Amino acid sequence: MYSANFDYHRAKSLSDAQRLLASNPGAKLLAGGHSLIPLMKLRLASPSAVVDIGRIPELRGISKSGDGIRIGSLTTHAEIAASADVQKSAAALAEAAGLVGDPAVRSRGTIGGNVAHADPASDLPTVLVALDAKIVAIGPKGERTISADGFFTGIMSTTLADDEVITAIVVPALAKEQGSAYVKFSHPASRYAVIGVAASVTSSGGTCSAARVALGGLVPHATRANAVEKALVGGGLDTTAIGTAAAKVGTDLGNEVTGDIFASAEYRTAVAPVYVKRAIAAAAARAGLA
Ligand SMILES: Cc1cc2nc3c(=O)[nH]c(=O)nc-3n(C[C@H](O)[C@H](O)[C@H](O)COP(=O)(O)OP(=O)(O)OC[C@H]3O[C@@H](n4cnc5c(N)ncnc54)[C@H](O)[C@@H]3O)c2cc1C
Q: What is the C-alpha radius of gyration for the chain, rounded to an integer number of angstroms?
């Protein structure tokens, strides 16, 4: 299918992108195009104009800062998966980026586009919630930093305003004995997450002192598994303890579980604890707890 007609503008810089957004009401930003273009071709989105930010150097790249790792919004999934810094400091994110779609999608798709699009079956939102990442965006009122935990509000909806541009994602530095992991049950055709679970656990003298577990694929937006987290903190993390905590995911899921032609809500609910268990066990091993 062909998209509806639209005006095309290529932004030369971040300020140029902001100017073009302001002067073209109803315009959409275009990064890697792997979510926006399919939507436009299916006529699920028909913006009057597209502002292409794909060649703005200042939005690309990974750097270490005092508070963690800063990933420019235009950084591709392939670049994140291959980054030694991300592998070391945010293993779950490198893992998730390496599991996105296929090589073509990973080479074009960007972290900024992925989080702005907020597909419930995307991988990166789940990981960013578990890692307590921050999303940095700039708009007419200036720059703001949004916690990933509060950024995703529903199916393909976020707190980002139409005139804001995501400039970077900041992932906090790892604590000394902290480990993270991401596991997913992939859709066999698209590789999107039918179930995606990210876990981050911190050890203190052999005891789990902090835990963040986030769920994706089976709920409308990336969400923390509070009951699972609560069950983890304060104890050791042997197989039994992890299994007991993972079983609490039913409480966290409530009755908002997604069901579709590929996997019913009942099936997703039944299988979720297995993936929760795997993510925690992998994170715990990296934290030196298991
Ligand atoms: C076949 C296929 C398989 C896929 N499989 C997976 C998968 O397994 N897991 C997964 O997570 N994803 C998957 N994806 C999605 C892929 O990761 C996309 O690349 C990503 O979701 C969107 O990134 P993009 O750079 O292509 O964004 P675009 O398509 O260019 O933009 C997407 C949306 O984000 C907005 N946007 C883009 N950049 C910014 C910015 N800097 N600031 C504000 N808004 C912005 C756009 O206006 C648009 O609304 C798949 C896609 C395809 C086509």
A: 19
pLDDT at 288 > cutoff 90 = no
State the Cα–Cα distance between residues 196 and 92, nearest whole angstrom: 11
Going by CA atoms, what residue is nearest to atom 28 of ligand 1?
33
Q: What amino acid is encoded at 234 in this protein? A: G
Domains within the chain, CATH numbers bracketed: 7-52 (3.30.43.10), 178-286 (3.30.390.50)
Residue nearest to atom 1 of ligand 1 (CA): 190
pLDDT band at residue 14 using 50, 70 and 90 as cut-offs: very high
- The finding on whether 11 has its CB within 6 A of some atom of ligand 1 is no
**Mean pLDDT across the chain:** 96
Q: What is the mean pLDDT of residues 20-25?
A: 96
Across the strands, what pairs with 200? 180, 212
Helix (H, G, I), strand (E, B) or coil at 157: strand
Q: Is 165 exposed, middle or buried (0-12, 13-18, 19+ CB in 10 A)?
A: buried
CA pair distance 236, 241, nearest whole angstrom: 7
Question: What's CA 4's distance to the chain center, in Å?
Answer: 29
Q: How confident is the model at residue 290 (pLDDT cuts 50, 70, 90)?
A: low
Q: Which residue has the tokens 């939005």?
A: 59
pLDDT at 20: 98
Q: What are 50-100's pLDDT values in tens digits?
A: 999 999 999 999 999 877 999 999 999 999 999 999 999 999 999 999 999
CA 126 from chain center: how many Å? 5
Ligand 1 atom closest to Cα of 31?
30
